[in-house]
Amino acid sequence: MKKIQPAKTLQNVINSAIYHLNLRDHSISELKTKLEAKTDNQEWVDTVIAQMKGYGYLKEDLPFAIHFCETSYANEYGKRYMIEKLKQKGISETDITEALERVSHQQQRSEYNLVVERLSRIEDFSHTTKEKVFNTLLKRGFSLNDITHAIAEHPAGNTLLEKAVIKGQNANLRNEIIKLAKKLKGAALIRRELSMKHIDVSEFD
C-alpha cells in the first residue's frame, strides 16, 4: 500500500480532498476520514470540508444518499445493497430511510422486476449453478423471496440446478459403486449413498 504523505500545509489538505473527489463521489464521513489520515490538524480538516461543500464538490448526507440510491437502482441493485453501502459511508439511518423512500417513489420498476429483468438475459442455466445465481443476486441486495419467485417464473427455471445435483448427474455410476464397495458397504447402503449424491440409481443392480 502506498504510504500516505503527511500534509505540511492547508493547501496539501485541499489538494488531497480534490484528488479524492475527482476519483469518485465521497460522503462527508468518507472524505473526513481520508483527510484525517493526512493530517491531525482538525481545523484544517474542518476548513477543507466546509470549502468542498461551498464549491459544490461535496454533498450533504441526504443529497449524497439520494444520488447513490438513484445510481444503484439504475445499475440494478437492491435496497439491501444500498443500505449496507450507505452505512459503510457513514450515512445515518434517518437519511438512508428518507433517501430510499424518495427514490422508491420515482422508480417505475419494483425490485422483483429488476431481478426478473436480470434473469431474462439468461436463456438457460446449464452453464451455472443455483448457488452461484442466488449468491450473485443476494450480493446485489435482492431478497431471497424475490429471487426464488423470479427463478420459479423463468421459462428455463427448471434447468437451474444445485452444484451437488450437477455433480451427481455427471458422475460415473460404475466408478462410484466401486469406490463405495471398496469401503465394504453393502448394496442397500451403496444405493442410499448414491441417491444422497443425486446419482441416478435406476441402472443399479
UniProtKB/TrEMBL annotation:
Q: What is its main location?
A: cytoplasm
Keywords, A to Z, come to: Cytoplasm
Q: State if Cytoplasm is listed as a keyword.
A: yes
- State its location(s): Cytoplasm
Q: Which GO terms describe its biological process?
A: regulation of DNA repair
Gene Ontology cellular-component annotations: cytoplasm
InterPro entries assigned: Regulatory_RecX, WH-like_DNA-bd_sf
| Family (UniProt) | Belongs to the RecX family.
UniProt name for this protein = Regulatory protein RecX
What lineage does UniProt assign to this protein's organism? Bacteria, Pseudomonadati, Pseudomonadota, Gammaproteobacteria, Vibrionales
